[in-house]
Amino acid sequence: MYDILIIGGGAIGCSIARRLSKYDLKIALLEKNIEVCQETTKANSAVVHGGYDNIPGTLKAKLNVEGNLMYPELSEELDFAFKKTGSLVLAFSEDEMETIKELYNRGIKNGVPELEIIDADRAREIEPKIADNVVGALYCKTAGVVDPFNYTYAMIENAIDNGVELFTETEVVNLEKKGETILVKTNNRDFEAKYIINAAGLYSDKVANMAGDDDFYIIPTKGVYRLLDKTKADFLNIVMFQTPTEKGKGVLVTPTYDGNSMIGPTADIVSTVEDTTTEAESLKKIDELGRKSVPGLDLRKTIRVFTGVRAKPNTGDFMIYPSKKMDGVVHCGGIESPGLASAPAIAKYVEDILLSLGMNPEPNKNYNPKRNSIPSIARSDLKTKMKLVEEDPNYGKIICRCENVSEAEIIAAINRPGGAKTVDGVKRRVRAGMGRCQGGFCGPRVLEILSRELKVDPTEIKKDLLGSEIVIRHLKK
Amino acid sequence: MLNYDLVIIGGGPAGLGAAVEAKKNGIDSILIIERDWELGGILNQCIHNGFGIHEFKEELTGPEYAHRFIKQVKENNIEYLLNTMVLEISEEKEVIAMTDNGLIMIEAKSIILAMGCRERTAGAVGIGGYRPSGVYTAGMAQRLINMEGLMVGKEVVIYGSGDIGLIMARRMTLEGAKVKCVVEISTHSSGLNRNIAQCLDDYGIPLYLSHNISTIHGKHRIEGVTISKVDEKWNPIPGTEEHISCDTLLLSIGLIPENELTVNAGIELNKTTNGPSVKSNMETSMKGVFSCGNVLHVHDIVDFVTQESRVAGRNAANYIKGFDDSEDKLLIETKALDGISYIVPNKIISGGKDGANLYMRSKNIYSNVTLEIKSGNKIIKSKKMRTMIPSEMINIPLKPEEIADLKEELTVEVIGI
Q: Annotated catalytic sites of A, by residue?
């Protein structure tokens, strides 16, 4: 019997788990994939938006601004990769400057601090790579970039440290009211809980249906991205948007936390939330638009193209509310952009809903809000590097050449709470295989380390999803 | 701080060859730094034969070829470090490297860059569709199969006709897989003719030229690909799509020299080869830093790597001994004209004692043409070529007397295209 069951191990579910772990409650998180962070959280813009473009009065507007402001402190507490880079919305004509003014006013209404309309010269000072025909920009200093994987792992690790249980490969198939509690049927066992949090992302409407609610449905909206190799010459300083037009929000050109450049996304409605395909026309579209902002983008430096699907609700706003049909269920659905920026505030909002529903928990006496990230050789200075290797020689064994990731980091990624079970899980946690060779060199070594640490045969190790085994058999036993 | 006269970064064929040559030229204080757990580089996973025809006049396997040099390194008591990753080279020729015993710092009089290359990935060509498992670069599959004894799949499609892809077509067939086809976007293969014959034709594996792979199917494990014919601009021709089922896709779409250390050290690169820009003595834009092998430009046969490594090793030795071949001499730029895609080296030392070894590739397939090397109006060398193929590197050695008093840009051109 659980107090709370959270369905979905994305950025939202994991943030909620961590938030609630400060209470003396029995909490579990159910994730249908092999690991957390395997769907929308793994493929998005990784931007912590300032919050100026949401319509005032919406939940999105409120939670984005709140969430954004929570990031700096949270990233210190949980030691995840977040950098306040600021963002620019570039205007290419005087007409677009009018829209910039509207965005500015909206931002002020939403309570976004440190917003500023700047001229082209100032914009160029901030980011010299912008196009010559930029006439001005909206400058939002509070925007930033986060490593969405790192964020999510920090949340789940800290949650588990504080007593939350994680069940992976556990897919919820039905919810059933049973007196004061709810019976949760999954693909492998039943759970019972007083409260259910539906943070099922792309499947949040389906889970809402299980509780009898049909207030919203997901319109799967695909976004295609291109990720470029990181080189000193191509480094970008700031997140860049284009002025939104009737045609859409415009394409984003952004640095990642680790210094790669990224362009995207498209926004195409697709028939299924499973559709993470990338196609040539979409790439062509983002390439053209990306070059509109930064003409010098060297697309030959592409190391990966990928696609994420937004959990876009038909209602246009986040759908966070207690079920109207099944007491004890709280939906947290339709979390599209700015979901990542809002995530910490969403967790707090869900906490408030639970408290308002009469949940009256004691504090968790052993609660430790702190979590340390896995020390990284690549990010350390020489002295720290020396110290790390002295303490653990595995820090001196560099497995991933492109990102300089050591064996010690990979072992830690696997053995941490809620740790990596897949090759892509290792990649997202410590960046082995994230670099320019995309695992061409380190892939076989990572496979071997996973197999050794998890004590399973290499043929059982998967790339990421169920059914994504990497090797099929041994040539000789 | 350690001190060596010569530090060689990379223990593959280029690094090993350069080390042995430097030793022969009187340098005793040499350190080879290798990031993998054994010397030999990628040759270790190339268990097929065909290596060393020029160098040893016999056909060796990759490990055998490597072993001949490893043996010489050991016999000559040349020091080497394994599992050691160079993190940084400074302008003062200080090398910082990571080992499991900790960080080491080495002061070198001279450095040879021999870090090899890496494979282009699916992202680089933007193949559409999902990102399932079962998609490998050919080299990664080669390592898994040949070194780890792990089979990657049963039904294979190969994209790109680079040599590793061709070799893997045969290798996977021999391990019982069905290789359905090799898909090449260009009008000609980027692999050696002998590999087309020995790895595809001998096994009845079709090669689809002027075709691309537009889409990968299957979300978890790859289930198939869509291929299309392409026009001369490599755009797919509508209506020519064909679905091919497979559980494995190998990518053999090109190699890129690994020059991150080079760039971070501020050494100039050649935009065409992606390798350092070098003089005819293999010296880079940084005094005393030399380069050879696939980090300089991608070779199709290892024998040329060895040949080039000797030039680098010898000149590094000379530099350490205080004879700098380029000192006070005129540097003559090389320029690829009609029909030539690139030339290494980028600069010829006019009057250089060593002469100059020109390596180049043709832009296209040509037959019965003349290769003409000129400086100003003076023809230095002219060579009748029955065929020229981009995948087959051309090596034209120029003797010291042929470059004795070069004054004007050295051009290479294909006449009669």
A: 49
